[in-house]
């Protein structure tokens, strides 16, 4: 597979820029959200539920998101999703009690799954096969860089109170919406007012030799990097005196930085040598790093493993998204296939957080991360023994 040296389509840069704006806003809000919930005199479990409800609503609404893409097209679904996030985030800033905050945050999960699934669909349609790995890495890196910058901006604005970050986030998403409206005036590739591409059914997706292993990979990646790493890493840092609470923030930043930097290489490699080899390397390498993570007892080992884990994840994400695009192809609408993949990641994140949390409480963080390593390694098995998927045009 030869890499394409041609410049990317302008619409792809619009998506990359919008992702960066959205991620900065999310990075500003994420650290203060549990604190804002606790300000309503609720316990730790209730404050944590504010975070969990977002992922749960994303999971439940994902099939509807796929239907909306098939019915109205990716661009319209993307814009409406951003609109929902704007309104729900602003309402969070105005929340007068815990239950209204829970409701508004859950509403944000609907908008989130709409714009994330539709953005994947737009990447499928706009990126030619030989650029899919590179495009996925640039798009993913923009989110990562925004998530790195967001907490820094949020820390600088901490004196403004707990409500202001929500209004800043809503404003940044509104800027992203305007950006797309101005520079992507119509649904790319749509014929007339309606999208007349043939729809890829879920049965067709399942029949593809790569789709079912890809769902398993998405669930494993969600378990490890969207669930366990985010939920347990801060708790482990607080429980190990040699690491301490500040070490958690540094570790998460190093993970994102290692991921963002490495994706610039791995995305191009996915186009050059193929998707599956990078997926196998990424899953096994991530498993090897993760198995030792829970037993790290010094700050420098903890931080080094976090950065290296980010590099391992960089092999997985762009290759997965490029392979998903290969399976669907540019000539079909793959709303159901895209939304089911999103569900697999969210389900992995929720399941991993809950089960690994129970294991950590009962047997220690070492075993929780060791089990997570086993999940990552297990996801590599179908790629090693199964039939290689072909690329759709």
Give a concise summary:
With 393 residues, the protein is an all-alpha fold. The protein has helices at 10-29, 33-38, 44-72, 74-94, 98-126, 132-156, 164-183, 202-207, 211-239, 245-273, 275-293, 299-328, 335-363, 365-385; strands at 198-199, 332-333. Residues 189-194 have low confidence and may be disordered.
Structure notes:
This protein folds into 2 domains: 1-186, Growth Hormone, Chain: A (Up-down Bundle); 199-388, MFS general substrate transporter like domains (Growth Hormone, Chain: A, Up-down Bundle). Residues 189-194 have low confidence and may be disordered. It is built from 14 helices and 2 strands; from the N terminus they run H-H-H-H-H-H-H-E-H-H-H-H-H-E-H-H. It has helices at residues 10-29, 33-38, 44-72, 74-94, 98-126, 132-156, 164-183, 202-207, 211-239, 245-273, 275-293, 299-328, 335-363, 365-385, and strands spanning 198-199, 332-333. It starts with 9 loop residues before the first helix and ends in an 8-residue tail after the last helix. It is mainly alpha-helical and 393 residues long. A two-stranded parallel ribbon has the order 1-2. The chain is globular, with a radius of gyration of 20 Å. Helix 3 runs parallel beside helix 5, helix 6 (132-156) packs antiparallel against helix 10 (245-273) and helix 11 (275-293) packs antiparallel against helix 12.
